[in-house]
Amino acid sequence: MPNSANAAVPRPRIFLIHATPLAIAPIADSFARLWPAAELCNLLDDSLSADLAKTGQLDAAMMRRFLTLATYARDAGATGILFTCSAFGPAIEACRSALPLPLLKPNEAMIDEALAQGGTIGLLATFAPSLASMEQEFAERAAALGVRAHLVLRAVPGAFQALQRGDAAGHDAAIAHEAAALAGCDRICFAQFSMSSAANAAATASGRPVLTTPDSAVQRLRELLAGG
Questions:
Q1: At 27, which CATH number?
Q2: Cβ contacts of residue 97 below 8 Å, gap of 6+?
Q3: pTM passes above 0.85
Q4: Do both 88 and 135 map to the same domain?
């Protein structure tokens, strides 16, 4: 019989649930750098972002769609789930309440990291509907930790559309320009996974540290599962 000490350790199976294909490459890059042992499985429904932009609200039907996606991931053997779109916080919370496995909202690890460092936080988003839900997440988490969240919110016009056209350079330049224009901030947080390619340019242009959701999320999920 094989020696159990030499048996292969099962790889943690992480399901990534996306509302835009633009989030797939950034989170894959973060896993490759920070947790290469994880097995990644991608679920994409890009109608979610389009429908939210049209309606402007998370209705009951969309909440059910999120639960359907998360339940599918669980039934497919997920050991953890990470959502990658920041505009759907309440729907993701509902999934977490319903499913007994590690499940992360895209922003929560970065929010904790930013609040722990204190000061005023500049929050940039290329998908404007993300700002309202993220502001609420910051406020709720700050209240739970007994601290204050000092935020400066800014949407980056045209950046998301540039990335959709395949203009990565234009996307990054727009974000860097907006980061440089932020006043009175100690650090900058990005609201979208798809923004992470602009982190270095934004840090250089603004002279301030930049936190990205993919890196913070991967590190937190790895800690939760004690993997790698």
A1: 3.40.50.1860
A2: none
A3: no
A4: no
